[in-house]
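Thought: the user asked what DUF3592 domain-containing protein looks like in 3D. I have the sequence; next I should run the structure tool and report back without guessing.
Action: structure_tool
Action Input:
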Amino acid sequence: MRDIILACVGGIIALAGGVYLARLLYYKKFGVIAKAEVTDAAAVTKRAGVFSYIIVTAKRISHYTHTLRYEVNGKVYEEKDSAAYTQPLKIGSTHLILCDPKDPKKFKFEADVSRHITITAALVVMAVIFALRFLLVK
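Observation:
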């Protein structure tokens, strides 16, 4: 019974990773590539400390969000990213992005998509091997 439960856990992890991998591959295959310029960088702060909600503590920067300007099909968009980088991108720098062809307001950084495909594929393979180990090896 324990082996079946562990195999199911591995299967669920592989399934979740597969869904995310399919989404990334959709952006890679069908995404509209555009050159985006960083127009703004804003720091997102969070409270730091063990008792951050009880005692007033110092705030620290959690991550940065960036506003990017890009053009897709003759229309200019200016949208915030959801990548949550720990270092700010230089204002005025340009980056390649992949836009959703159905909704160009949704985008991902091209370099991130390629990197995440590799990492996610490796994790899905490991989850499948984990699940098969508990199903087949007795």
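Thought: the tool returned a structure. Summarizing for the user.
Final Answer: Structure for DUF3592 domain-containing protein predicted. The chain has one domain: 2-128. Helices lie at 2-30, 110-136.
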